[in-house]
Amino acid sequence: MQKEMTLKKPFKFSFTDIIPLLIWISVFFMAWLFMHPADPYLAMTREALGRYFPVRYFLIAHITSGGGALLSGIVQFWPKLRNYSPLLHRGVGYIYLLAVLVSSICALVLASTAAYALSWAYAFTLQVWAAVWISATFIAFWTAIRKQFKLHKEWMIRSYIVTIAFLISGFANRLPVMQQLGTFAEVSVPLFWMGWAIPLYTYEIIRSSGFKKKTSAR
């Protein structure tokens, strides 16, 4: 018997793709704004890195792979691209998983070493944050392996919420009104919690509300 050859339709950019593209460009621009102040760290000198000098390679790996997670993660939510090529979706997913894995492990190293120079609360907050990040991403990966795609999508959203929390808390920390509230260590701790806890809580409210509407409609 002759097997039928199915040709994949070419990916054609249409008007509906403008919004996902603009979102990706916006994330790219915000990631650049967030990471740009860290450019002096690339000098890899003790003067530029300060307390991070002993763990400088972990710091650079954390920043670069974190940026990779931001850019690769948002692509996964582009429905047209996801439906066009499941293989591409899976490949980008592995890139995101690897980026989160590297960045979160490096974050745990930084939180367990250099972060204690500021305060115990600052270090502990970063440790919890990194643990939530890596666990949510692993569950998203595990549900995909088990072909539980609805759960995979939900956990992928949770994982990416924790990913963009770095942008939320980072930009909030640079606001003049926040800097007037106290030292960096004092202000950053509640902002770190706010960056991922409030968006996650909001998502759970939206998700559960949608579920109740679907259930009542049956």
Task: Give an overview in words.
With 218 residues, the protein is mainly alpha-helical. Helix content is 75%, strand content 0%. It contains 9 helices and no strands. It has helices at 18-35, 46-49, 56-75, 79-84, 86-111, 120-145, 149-173, 176-179, 184-217. Helix 7 packs antiparallel against helix 9 (184-217). The chain is globular and about 50 Å long. Residues 1-7 have low confidence and may be disordered.
Compact summary:
By secondary structure, this protein is mostly helical. The protein contains 9 helices and no strands.
Strands, helices and their partners?
Layout: H1 18-35, H2 46-49, H3 56-75, H4 79-84, H5 86-111, H6 120-145, H7 149-173, H8 176-179, H9 184-217
Task: Report the portion of residues in β strands.
Answer: under 5%
Oligomer: single chain
What ranges have pLDDT less than 50 throughout 5 or more consecutive residues?
Answer: 1-7
Q: Helix fraction? A: over 70%
- Count every beta strand, where a strand is a DSSP E run of 2 or more residues: 0
Largest beta-sheet details: none
- The termini sit apart by 45 Å
Q: Please report the number of helical segments.
A: 9
Content-based structural category? mainly alpha
What gyration radius follows from the Cα positions, in whole Å? Answer: 20 Å
Shape: globular
| Average predicted local confidence, pLDDT | 84
What is the H-and-E element order? HHHHHHHHH
